[in-house]
Amino acid sequence: MATERYSFSLTTFSPSGKLVQIEYALAAVAAGAPAVGIKAKDGVVLATEKKHKSILVEEHSIIKVEMITDHIGMVYSGMGPDYRLLVRQARKVAQQYFRTYLETIPTTQLVQRLAAIMQEYTQSGGVRPFGVSLLICGWDTDRPYLFQCDPSGAYFPWKATAMGKNFINGKTFLEKRYNEDLELDDAVHTAILTLKESFEGQMSSDNIEIGICNAKGFRRLTPAEVQDYLANIA
Amino acid sequence: MSILNYNGGCVVAMKGKNCVAIACDLRFGVQSQTITTDFERVFELGPQLYIGLPGLATDTQTVYQRLQFRIKMYEMREGRRMKPQTLMAMAQNLLYERRFGPYFVEPVIAGLHPSTKEPYICALDLIGCPCEPADFVVSGTCSESLYGMCETTWREDMEPEDLFECISQSLVNAFDRDALSGWGAVVHIIEHDKVTTRYLKCRQD
């Protein structure tokens, strides 16, 4: 990763003990599009806003909620290009795991490995930290998982969380609305409502993206399914 | 003389009813000269997970140490016990990494699944090709004799005591016909709650 000119790390400590590059990376995340993840009894939902700057943009060609393996999905807040790289690496890590153990990668293992990759970029020469926080959802050993991975390489398991613009309001909203007995349908409903808190304008199946993960695996909801959920809210 | 016959030795594993058995001989020699008669080539890798590594003795030791390293790292990283099927995948990977300069061992794995307690046996060749039959697996210098003995004596769903008799008789009568194996045997019967290890008395030649 380092060229000859940069054998030193650009992420260095400040006198107060902080890594300012990581703080700035978190600021880039907080300026990104909102993303929400909620764990239900029988699955996990990931949702994100997909607003475009111009009406000329072809909305359905850009996908934000990505599948990593049959049973693991991912979404982000922050810089899109950095996210694409991490999606590639996550998919590679998952397949390498399968090659070695002939077993699909457990969600916790994928998260640990991905977080280790993100941490490398905070301690290597000539590179900057990733400007994304990831929300990773998965299903294995008969239970759902939801994790957040930060630019620092720290990872957190969540029952429900929000990232990106207005994440504080999102989290407060979720603290009130979340309970342990949510079913997946209710979780999707709650996720949409959480996104609506910070949404400017009219929500439609073209400007939000939803993915769900349950015992049957991970999949993105079709625009028609998203429209059904939106109709229930209106 | 093949390098796999240099030190001699053999291993056999069988499936029974809710149990598995794995056994090996104890001879360690250099071609025709017997050096020791206490060289065990079946190792414990987990509470109900055993691997037999017949073949070149130096590779027996190295492959066992390398596998043990990988298993301990796996169990610490993942926080769970290794399944026999996953051990097979891991051994396959380890052996194929050396595809063009292989380890001269042909492993045999026997164990019970950590939670379902389902019996599992498999054998791999020296470059990692697995074989997962429903009855028994054999490996070593007297493998042909072992195939014959096991084929005739094995029955489905044998209780642990019958399985012990079957595997012991198969092993002893097979390696008695082989100059490079023998000089004693050890048998492990693996059940869901205990492992019984017995040393067999046999012809010392």
UniProtKB/TrEMBL annotation, chain A:
Record GO cellular component, one term: nucleus
CDD domains with a match to the protein in the record: proteasome_alpha_type_2 (cd03750)
Main location: cytoplasm
Compartment annotation: Cytoplasm; Nucleus
SUPFAM superfamilies: N-terminal nucleophile aminohydrolases (Ntn hydrolases)
Residue ranges annotated for the Proteasome alpha-type subunits domain, each copy included: 6-28
Keywords: Cytoplasm, Nucleus, Proteasome
Cited InterPro entries: Ntn_hydrolases_N, Proteasome_alpha, Proteasome_alpha-type, Proteasome_asu_N, Proteasome_sua/b
GO biological process, any: ubiquitin-dependent protein catabolic process
Transport in keyword set: no
Keyword Cytoplasm: yes
The protein's assembly and partners: The 20S proteasome core is composed of 28 subunits that are arranged in four stacked rings, resulting in a barrel-shaped structure. The two end rings are each formed by seven alpha subunits, and the two central rings are each formed by seven beta subunits.
UniProt similarity note: Belongs to the peptidase T1A family.
Function, as annotated: The proteasome is a multicatalytic proteinase complex which is characterized by its ability to cleave peptides with Arg, Phe, Tyr, Leu, and Glu adjacent to the leaving group at neutral or slightly basic pH. The proteasome has an ATP-dependent proteolytic activity.
Protein name as catalogued: Proteasome subunit alpha type
Organism: Cherax quadricarinatus
Automatic annotation (TrEMBL), chain B:
Main location as per UniProt: cytoplasm
A cellular-component GO term for this protein: proteasome core complex, beta-subunit complex
Cell compartments where the protein resides: Cytoplasm; Nucleus
Family per similarity comment: Belongs to the peptidase T1B family.
Protein name: Proteasome subunit beta
SUBUNIT field: Component of the proteasome complex.
UniProt cross-references to PROSITE patterns, sorted A to Z: PROTEASOME_BETA_1 (PS00854), PROTEASOME_BETA_2 (PS51476)
One BP term from GO: proteasome-mediated ubiquitin-dependent protein catabolic process
Top-level division of the source organism's lineage: Eukaryota
Keywords: Cytoplasm, Nucleus, Proteasome
Pfam families listed in its UniProt record: Proteasome
Function: Non-catalytic component of the proteasome, a multicatalytic proteinase complex which is characterized by its ability to cleave peptides with Arg, Phe, Tyr, Leu, and Glu adjacent to the leaving group at neutral or slightly basic pH. The proteasome has an ATP-dependent proteolytic activity.
Alphabetized SUPFAM superfamilies for the sequence: N-terminal nucleophile aminohydrolases (Ntn hydrolases)
InterPro entries, per database record: Ntn_hydrolases_N, Proteasome_beta_3, Proteasome_bsu_CS, Proteasome_sua/b, Proteasome_suB-type
